[in-house]
Amino acid sequence: MFNVLVVEDDKNLKKLMTTYLKKNDYNVFEAINGNQALDILDTSYIDLIISDIMMPEMDGYELVKSLRESKYEVPILLVTAKNSFEDKREGFLLGADDYMVKPINMEEMVLRVKVLLKRAKSANEKRLRIRNLVLDYNTLTVIRKDKVYNLAQKEFYLLYKLLSTPDTIFSRQDLIEEIWGLENDSDYRTVDVHIKRIREKLSDVDEFEIITVRGMGYKCKINGE
After folding, report:
1. Which uninterrupted H or E stretch holds 118?
2. How far apart are CA 133 and CA 156, in angstroms?
3. Best label site of 41, 62, 102, 202, fewest CB within 10 Å?
4. What is each CA distance from 185 to 18, 161, 177, 182, in whole angstroms?
């Protein structure tokens, strides 16, 4: 089930949007402004955001700008009473993915959500996201908010493998064969050394932990689940 965050200060509209999304099997989180939205994003994984523009404290433009500056690539659908080209242009330039003008058709909103999620899924097939942590297989990068962690190639492959299937125990032999290859003469100590380096380099990351399973190998546990 996809998690959708609705950011809207109009209580009645927010309730209507939430009702339609839930009817279409989406799990919905709610916020009344950008600040509340950021708090939710810090603690929950969100697949898509639907946000009003005119809101107190932090408006939709500021929310989009903050997320994109932090390298947060979640799809964002802006919903607003503003209908001018300049308003739409500002939203798209800041990083919004789609735009709807009030009064909105709820069925159309649901269709747009479906399309945006499908597009995001295609783009993220080689990307893992765990709350604020992103592993991009295509660029071999690990990013958490605005911090980039520099892992060696084999370290990245090892971490990506473990996080791809959390709670699955991989023996050292399994990991050597997949990461280093069947013909490689590396021994089990190689895996231990790489795990140690990953733990040291990502010591401030709390989204997951690599657990040593005595006599068996390693697994990753996602924290907060």
Report:
1. helix 106-123
2. 13
3. 102
4. 56, 20, 10, 8
Are the C-beta atoms of residues 101 and 80 closer than 8 Å to each other?
Answer: yes
Task: Give the CA dihedral 75, 49, 80, 89, nearest 10 degrees.
Answer: -20
Q: Which residues contact 98 (CB under 8 A, 6 or more apart)?
A: 75, 76, 77, 78, 112, 116
Q: How many Cα atoms occupy the beta-carbon half-sphere of 13 within 13 Å? A: 18
- The SS3 assignment for 158 reads helix
Mark residue 57 as left, alpha or beta (left: phi above 0; alpha: psi -120 to 50; beta: remaining).
left
Q: What is the mean pLDDT of residues 133-155?
A: 89
Average pLDDT over residues 177-188: 72
User: What's the pLDDT band for 81 if we cut at 50, 70, 90?
Assistant: confident
Gyration radius from the chain CA atoms: 21
Please give the distance of CA 9 from its chain centroid, rounded to a whole number. 24
Residue 108 contacts residue 120 (beta carbons within 8 Å):
no
